[in-house]
Design goal:
By secondary structure, the chain is mainly α. About 55% of the residues lie in helices and about 5% in strands. It contains 42 helices and 14 strands. Strands 7, 8, 9, 10, 11 and 12 form a six-stranded mixed sheet that branches. A two-stranded antiparallel sheet has the order 1-2. Strand 8 and strand 9 form a beta hairpin. Helix 30 packs across helix 32. The longest helix has about 50 residues. The protein is globular, with a radius of gyration of 35 Å.
């Protein structure tokens, strides 16, 4: 049991076995010159070879030749070859046990090793405990024990004993962490934590279950619910600083357990472990609830203004008929005046006869009202929904203590005024109230000579939202709404990381180099444009014209695609997942949350994953499955499925697919693309946002990164209204796979000057599809001559002074992202949230304009680059089609009320599509081998157009049969190709 608890079979072989690769054999098992005299002194080839093996195996892994051990044949051959001895000599070694024992002791003495003793257990246990502070995984814990024993020059004990020490060390680390947290609790805090597991008769559930149960749908009622839960957690009075008393990983482990474990299971924990788990969960809940409240406040306020703008738009649209009538009246008036002037008639008489003075006077009010509709500030319209805002804003302001860079910040003053008005019930805003608003808003607020309470409060709410999003206003105790620079490395540490960045960090040399390069590129481009030598690009009427790209897929590739598809084995999705798991072992990335051990029933994990991926859900998956029950699935999904595990499993599949021979015809993992795919959410109660681009239904976007091998390697669920550009770089810096994308393609929506700048600073080549060339202008360095041929294409010069002024912060930002302390999207979203640009925001944008200009020249000069970008994006869009086919249940809608559950579905969907890509790649390779063996041409240049994204041969729905899912493999371990349905026709 202990062995199973700590390590998997693969981990045991990796830690305790003899390595198979040539490099490791050479490293660990090359006979040293100083050992040869001792070896040669032994009598007979058998003893010489046996003693050499003792020395080798004591050095690595460190056990020596144990009783009843079987020494691998390849190691015997490797050492025998070096000693010029026949490998068969080992068969006669150590018929006398005493000889073997004597050789073992002599080898230990030669290497200055000693045997493991009972007195060595505490030291090994300490090593295991220290390692377990940072992980639940068995392999690093066992490796720490091995490292300790090797450093002490102790011969390793039996693997089972090492595993028992590792298990004990992990238990010790858990116990010490729990004791540390519990010892910091006051008696009243202990009482409050214990009460979380007692059923509240009014709610019919435990306070813990109530605290966990929140909805992400942005309504005033849901926000009030989050604030009520936050108040409950705060009354417990736990200091968030307690988390720093134990290792970060150990605290996160307690948090994960505290969020997943039901109350009845926590009640079965030992007293101190239960209280420590609850304490960690409560500390984490306070930060989560605070972030959720601020996020929902932002969404509510955004909706307030969006609805105000929509109402204004509807009002304008409703006046279309009146505008037409008034315009005709204006035309008639102008006509009457013209006739009067030309014929010398009395103007007033002409107006009366041609139009009618009374009619003109009646139209005055209508015209003024329509003009006011278009002139209205959104603030005025939003203030018209004041009572809606009052349902959530006062409670939100009371729940938090906001901070800003200066204690006299105007927003803090405005918040203080609004709080005082709410507390006292006064209606009039003081005449000296702070006005940290734009000029237009100030005018609207003070229209009529006094401060309008509704407009002032609405403006304060909107400004607080904006400043929280940018990090210019922050709340301590949150994770996502801290001070802007708190997300970055300290300047000293950033300077160290900056040395590894792929650009010259001296601002003078950097700018000088970019200026020289751009000047040369502009002159070259101007010459090519003037000569008309650019492929598919010409200057016509002062505007650039870029010819559309024609389809480049040969008809022969389509025929080859059909031939390969006919040969693909027919398979159920359950069989496919079971086979992919057997080949890749990706389920090793799904250990149990608490113990870190593998699931005893892998089919249950696969079923839980498929429930997410197909949008079927746990209950319906259990009803449609044979071999798993609802109880098994619910438990498995709670304890084995998480965002972290999905990401680790995806890395296994991406790396496994990259190792398949056929993959090389599509790419080598050095290029990738990313794009968002919209999924509708439920019409009521589900988390989601409405984006007019996707009709009026709410939903979310799954933003996925896809390698040039077609494998999706990173995924992020984002709001339907969110800009995609901030998320482009996340996948490139945080995927963790073996592939290394250096060139990245994105659609127009993924491009921004900030992304251009940061991608360049991080060493990535950013290649977005440019569709808005007419709206973009090239830039110049100040003082650079403007090529005459490009005069109409060049806009304002770059603001080099801004870049110089903020250069240190730019480098610090790049170093922080490079070091992995913050995701690019976090910083880019905060920069984008500033209504008025701050210095870093503007400087980064100007740097991005330089890179955008250079890239635009690349784009215009290279038809091949445009084709590569189109092909890269096509791979991602084709994967979208597969994802839509897999995510078929519940009308393909994300109906969950919690964003976290929707994100799990997005991750499950990505993992299953990656599994399909791997399986398709494997069997397409076999189909290609069959075609070639049959004399059918299947050249690599045509295979490059055949994608591993088909699913016609995969049964995605119906009953899900998990028992014997991998039983139809032949003696070679593969499914038979569909030869009967294969091509009899020629493939040209």
């Amino acid at each position: 049991m202990a062995r199973r608890d700590l390590l998997t079979g693969d981990e045991r072989r990796a830690l305790f076995g003899v390595p198979l690769d040539h490099a490791s054999l050479a490293k660990h098992y090359t006979v040293a010159d100083e050992d040869r005299p001792l070896i040669e002194a032994k009598r007979g080839d058998a003893n010489r070879l046996g003693f050499a093996l003792h020395l080798a195996l004591l050095r690595h892994p460190g056990f020596g030749i144990r009783h009843d051990d079987v020494v691998p044949d390849f190691l015997i051959r490797h050492l025998a070859a070096q000693l010029d001895i026949a490998p068969t000599a080992f068969e006669g070694y150590a018929h006398r046990a005493q000889t073997r024992l004597e050789h073992a002791w002599e080898a230990m003495e030669r290497l200055r090793l000693r045997a493991f003793e009972a007195a060595d257990v505490p030291g090994a246990l300490g090593a295991a405990t220290r390692a377990a502070e940072a992980t639940e995984r068995g392999k690093p814990i066992a490796a720490a024990v091995l490292g300790h024993l090797r450093a002490a020059r102790i011969v390793l004990p039996a693997p089972a004993r090492i595993e028992r020490i590792g298990v004990a060390g992990r238990a010790m680390a858990r116990r010490l962490a729990a004791d540390t947290l519990v010892d910091a609790l006051a008696p009243e805090q202990v009482t409050g934590l214990d009460a979380l597991l007692i059923v509240d008769q009014d709610r019919g559930t435990t306070p813990l279950a109530w605290l966990r149960d929140t909805s992400d749908s942005p309504t005033a009622r849901n926000l009030a619910g989050i604030l009520a839960r936050l108040a409950h957690v705060r009354r417990l009075g736990l200091d968030p600083g307690m988390a720093g008393r134990i290792h970060e990983h150990r605290f996160e482990q307690l948090v994960r357990e505290g969020h997943v474990a039901p109350a009845f299971l926590l009640s079965d924990y030992s007293l101190r472990r239960r209280r420590a788990t609850l304490a960690a969960a409560v500390i984490d809940l306070e930060a989560r609830l605070a972030d959720a409240a601020i996020e929902m406040f932002g969404k509510q306020t955004g909706l307030l203004f969006a609805r105000a703008r929509a109402a204004q738009k509807r009002g304008i649209e409703a006046t279309t008929r009146d505008v037409n009538r008034l315009m005709r009246l204006l035309g008639a008036t102008v006509g009457a005046l013209r006739v009067a002037r030309e014929d010398g008639l009395d103007v007033w008489a002409a107006l009366e006869d041609g139009v009618g003075w009374t009619r003109l006077l009646d139209a005055e009010g209508e015209a003024t009202a329509i003009a006011d509709l278009t002139r209205d500030e959104p603030l005025i319209r939003a203030a018209g929904r004041y009572m809606t805002m009052r349902r959530y804003a006062p409670a939100f302001f009371d729940a938090f203590r906001f901070k800003a860079a200066g204690s006299r910040d105007g927003v803090l003053g405005a918040i203080k005024v609004v709080r005082a008005l709410n507390a006292t019930g006064r209606r009039d805003v003081p005449a000296d109230a702070p006005m940290p608003f734009s000029r237009k808003w100030k005018a609207a607020i003070t229209e009529g000579g006094v401060i309008d309470r509704r407009r002032y409060e609405t403006a304060t709410v909107a400004t607080v939202r904006e400043r929280l999003q940018s990090g210019d206003l922050w709340v301590e105790g949150t994770r996502e709404h801290l001070r802007f620079d708190s997300y970055m490395l300290p300047p000293g540490k950033a300077a160290e990381i900056a040395l590894t960045l792929p650009f010259d960090t001296d601002v003078g040399r950097y700018l000088e180099g970019r200026a020289r390069l751009l000047d040369w590129r502009l002159r070259r481009f101007a010459g090519s444009l003037k000569r008309g030598t650019l492929d598919g690009v010409e200057l016509r009427g002062g505007n650039l014209r870029v010819s559309p790209l024609a389809a480049v897929t040969p008809a022969a590739a389509d025929r080859l695609d059909a031939a390969v598809d006919r040969l693909m084995p027919r398979v159920r999705i359950t069989e496919l997942l079971a086979e992919v798991e057997a080949r890749t072992g990706f389920l090793c990335a799904f250990p149990e949350l608490r113990s870190g051990r593998a699931h005893s029933n892998p089919q249950a994990v696969l079923a839980a994953i498929l429930a997410d991926a197909t949008n079927l859900g746990i209950e319906r998956m259990a009803n449609a499955s044979q071999g798993v029950t609802y109880a098994q699935l619910a438990w498995t999904h709670g304890w084995y499925v998480s965002e972290e595990n999905y990401a680790a499993g995806l890395r296994h599949l991406v790396d496994a697919q990259a190792a398949l021979p056929l993959t090389r015809v599509w790419g080598d993992g050095t290029a990738s693309s990313s794009d968002g795919q919209f999924f509708r959410s439920g019409r009521r109660g589900a988390a989601g946002s409405t984006n007019a681009r996707y009709d009026r239904e709410p939903g979310q976007k799954i933003y996925a990164h896809v390698a040039d091998t077609y494998a999706p390697y990173h995924v992020r669920l984002i709001s339907a209204t969110a800009a995609e550009a901030p998320y482009v770089l996340d996948g490139l810096v945080a995927h963790g796979c073996g592939i290394e994308p250096a060139t990245h393609y994105a659609d127009t929506g993924g491009a921004s000057d900030h992304v251009f700048a940061l991608a360049h600073l991080l060493g990535f080549r950013f290649v977005p599809r440019l569709r808005d060339l007419a709206d973009r202008r090239l830039g110049l360095f100040p003082g650079t001559a403007r090529p005459e041929a490009l005069a109409k294409l060049i806009g304002r010069p770059f603001n080099i002074a801004a870049i110089r002024e903020s250069w240190d912060e730019i480098v610090r930002l790049a170093a922080s992202v490079k070091a992995g302390v913050v995701l690019p999207s976090v910083m880019l979203k905060k920069l984008a949230a500033y209504r008025r640009q701050n210095r870093l925001d503007f400087a980064l944008q100007e740097l991005g304009r330089i890179e955008r200009t250079l890239f635009t020249l690349d784009w215009l000069e290279s038809r091949a680059l445009r084709q590569q970008c189109q092909a890269g994006l096509n791979k991602g869009e084709a994967r979208h089609t597969l994802a839509q086919a897999v995510f078929v249940h519940k009308q393909g809608r994300l109906r969950d009320p919690q964003f976290e559950n929707q994100a799990l579905k997005a991750s499950g969907l990505t993992l299953v599509t990656a599994a399909i890509v791997y399986w398709n790649t494997l069997y397409m390779g076999r189909a290609v081998e069959h075609l070639r063996a049959s004399g059918e041409p299947a050249p690599d240049e045509l295979l490059a157009h055949v994608a591993p994204l088909g699913w016609r041969h995969i049964s995605l729905t119906g009953d899900y049969l998990w028992q014997n899912a991998a039983a139809e493999l032949d003696q070679d371990g593969y499914r038979a190709l569909n030869i009967a349905g294969g091509p009899g026709a020629k493939v040209a």
